[in-house]
Design goal:
Elements (H helix, E strand, L loop, with lengths): L4 E8 L6 H20 L4 H13 L20 E7 L5 E7 L5 H14 L5 H11 L8 H9 L11 E6 L5 E7 L20 E4 L8 E8 L1 H7 L1 H8 L5 H14 L12 E10 L12 E9 L3 E8 L6 E6 L11 E9 L4
Antiparallel strand pairs: 1-4, 1-10, 2-3, 2-5, 4-5, 6-7, 7-8, 8-9, 9-12, 10-11
Helix pairs in contact: 1-2, 2-3, 3-4, 7-8
């Protein structure tokens, strides 16, 4: 069996009292994705499975658990990108759909078929999607109206990044947007290069990369953080590259110079063929590096390979004394994926 690697995250504020629930959500999403990968699915299918699980949780700001806008309605953003084809699908301010990532995935599929201009076909697919269970959670309204958590509690957009048995990468992101946002406001999860990015190695790019972002949509959109981080990861030292990208392209970005604090987080996966025969299709020689970084108070991360019996989860927090929006945390690791005996 060929091993694979998967991760999921949300950046914002994660209270100690709910840490168990946040971690459990991440574990379930990891397991769903890895189950698909073990069955031979491609990265795109696995990342979709993970996002569905995250959207179905009442503890995340996506799908079922989405924030309410000023009118008391739910409007969701989502996007997905395939690193092999570079095709992309996204939806913004979507209402009445339980799993927005499924609609984004359908749009990506249509782009791959070259049929986006086929009005009747698209309309039929949208009508089918609208038959899914409509999301309206009265308990969410009560929770938001009586809650005392800080504003960053509403920033925990969810996302996932995957590399499959062939070394292809995919990324996805889903969000319910800011709490009490103006109706029809669209955040980074629906914008190209802002919410997620996936790109296989090719030509002058030695590394395949997958990125998913979370946090304040305005900050992530104005910096196009997902694509910036992907580009930065083409240098040799992944940890240093991500650190500099977060410092120079995000916290210190001239596009955010007027902001008192810059809130966001990223998960990044990069992989490359290692060993003597880098042109080989042998998955045994795949080196994977996985990192996460955030300027929010905390970020919940889960990761798993098909070698693992269960997912590992971690709530990353800023160092003591650090100020959210002005400081950052960065962690990660490296693994070499190969065929089991």
């Amino acid at each position: 069996m060929s091993p694979n690697f998967f991760a999921t995250t949300g950046a914002g504020y994660h209270s100690e009292s709910k840490a168990k629930e946040y971690k459990h959500v991440c574990k379930r999403a990891c397991q769903k994705a890895v189950d698909r990968l073990r069955a031979g699915a491609m990265a795109l299918e696995a990342v979709t499975a993970a996002l569905i699980e995250l959207e179905d949780s009442p503890f995340t700001n996506a799908g079922t658990g989405s924030n309410l806008n000023l009118c008391g309605d739910i409007e969701c953003d989502a996007s997905i990108m395939d690193g092999k084809s570079l095709n992309y699908g996204a939806v913004g301010a979507l209402t009445g759909i339980k799993n927005p990532i499924l609609v984004a995935r359908r749009l990506l599929n249509e782009a791959q078929k070259g049929n986006l201009s086929a009005y009747r076909r698209n309309k039929r697919k949208m009508e089918q999607a609208e038959k899914l269970e409509t999301v309206y959670n009265p308990s969410k309204r009560r929770q938001q109206s009586s809650g005392t958590e800080p504003m960053s509690a509403s920033l925990d957009t969810v996302g996932a990044i995957v590399v499959d048995q062939e070394g292809n990468v995919a990324a996805a992101v889903s969000s319910g947007g800011l709490a009490m946002k103006h109706p029809r406001r669209v955040g980074q999860a629906a914008h190209y290069g802002c919410g997620c990015w996936a790109e296989n190695a090719r030509d002058a790019r030695p590394y395949s990369t997958a990125v998913s972002t979370s946090g304040c949509g305005e900050h992530l959109m104005r910096t196009m953080l997902a694509r910036e981080c992907s580009t930065a990861m083409q240098t040799e030292d992944a940890h240093q590259a991500l650190l500099e990208a977060m410092q120079n392209k995000f916290i210190g970005s001239p596009f955010l110079a007027s902001e008192d604090g810059v809130l966001g987080g990223v998960i990044v996966l990069r992989c490359c063929r290692c060993g003597e025969d880098q042109s080989s299709d042998n998955f045994q020689a795949l080196l994977v590096e996985f990192l996460w970084s955030h300027t929010t108070e905390s970020m919940c991360v889960g990761y798993m390979s098909t070698h693992d019996s269960k997912a590992r989860t971690h709530i990353s927090r800023l160092p003591p004394g650090a100020v959210a929006g002005q400081s950052l945390a960065i962690e990660g690791g490296v693994c070499r994926l190969g065929v089991t005996d």
